[in-house]
Design brief:
The complex is a heterodimer.
Chain A lengths: L1 H20 L3 H26 L5 H31 L4 H5 L4
Chain B lengths: L1 H18 L5 H21 L3 H25 L15 H21 L13 H9 L4 H22 L4 H5 L19
Helix pairs in contact in B: 1-2, 2-3
The chains are: A mainly alpha, B mainly alpha.
């Protein structure tokens, strides 16, 4: 259990670093994906070691996987929209006022 | 099993770090894929066969699509020149390091409960019965969320919206389409 939680902590922290430090929208999405991946690993560990007789832990993982798919699709759509409108793919440039 | 787990754990974290270290966006995408596959193997080790395989298959498709987006939008997809696209690196390192310290301390120090309950013979069957039974509301909400995402992403990614076609006040009698066609046009 501890090993799984350490793995989840490390994945979450690496993802958090990426989400906070990257300028590229796609790279920020990668950071968010790593953080959701940590939720999947943690959920699997909690299900297996604390309550395997109940399916709740597995349902949490299904929700996390769906959140990952939604985040990816929405991220790509936002990137497409902002690239089409402003010709930028970086958060810093997108925050600037339009000329 | 322990050796496999720790090998995959180290691999998942190392390839996760590599995502933000390599110059090439394409390499970053495949490093992320490697991280997901390593993490999914650890999920397979706790008998969650269906969910582990689902994550692996989904991530392979997702990362292949992501590579296409990288080539479409990113300025340096092949990593031919070293570059950095970071802001506030020091602050991000401090925050993520502190987060890891807090989470890792909790993981080690908390006396996590253990159970002697009988594990289901087929966890996939248990999940399916839960989603089609007492957890049906969760499944319905997930379905609606995915459907809303489909509509939202198409609206966002479509070049011409209804305001382009029918004017800012939506009062244009005939839509302004580059190619005429359709019923009555």
């Amino acid at each position: 259990m501890t090993g799984y939680l350490l793995l989840a902590s490390a994945l979450f922290s690496v993802g958090l670093f990426g989400a906070l430090s990257q300028q590229s929208i796609v790279m920020i999405m990668m950071g968010l994906e790593l953080m959701i991946n940590a939720v999947i690993v943690g959920g699997a560990a909690f299900w297996y070691y604390t309550a395997p007789e109940r399916p709740d832990g597995q349902v949490v993982i299904v929700v996390a996987i769906t959140a990952m798919a939604v985040e990816m699709a929405a991220g790509f759509a936002v990137t497409t929209a902002i690239f089409r409108a402003r010709d930028v793919d970086m958060t810093d440039l997108a925050a600037d006022l339009k000329d | 099993m322990d050796v496999v787990f720790w090998g995959c754990a180290v691999g998942a974290v190392a390839s996760g770090i590599a995502v933000f270290r390599v110059d090439s966006m394409a390499r970053a995408t495949f490093a992320l894929l490697a991280s997901f596959v390593f993490a999914a193997v650890t999920v397979l080790l706790v008998d969650l066969t269906y969910l582990g395989v689902l994550v692996i298959l989904m991530m392979i498709m997702e990362m292949v699509i992501m590579v296409v987006f990288m080539l479409m939008y990113m300025m340096n997809p092949a990593g031919l020149m070293p570059m950095s696209m970071l802001h506030n690196k020091k602050g991000a390192l401090v925050i993520s390091g502190a987060t890891f310290a807090v989470l890792a301390t909790g993981s080690i120090l908390v006396d996590w409960p253990t159970t002697n309950a009988r594990r289901p013979e087929d966890p996939t069957m248990a999940l399916g019965e839960a989603l089609m039974g007492p957890k049906m509301l969760t499944m319905v909400v997930l379905g609606l969320a995915l459907f809303a995402t489909i509509i939202a992403t198409v609206v966002l990614a479509t070049h011409r919206g209804r305001y382009d076609r029918y004017g800012d006040r939506l009062d244009r009698k005939r839509p302004d389409d580059p190619v005429r066609g359709g019923l009555g046009r």
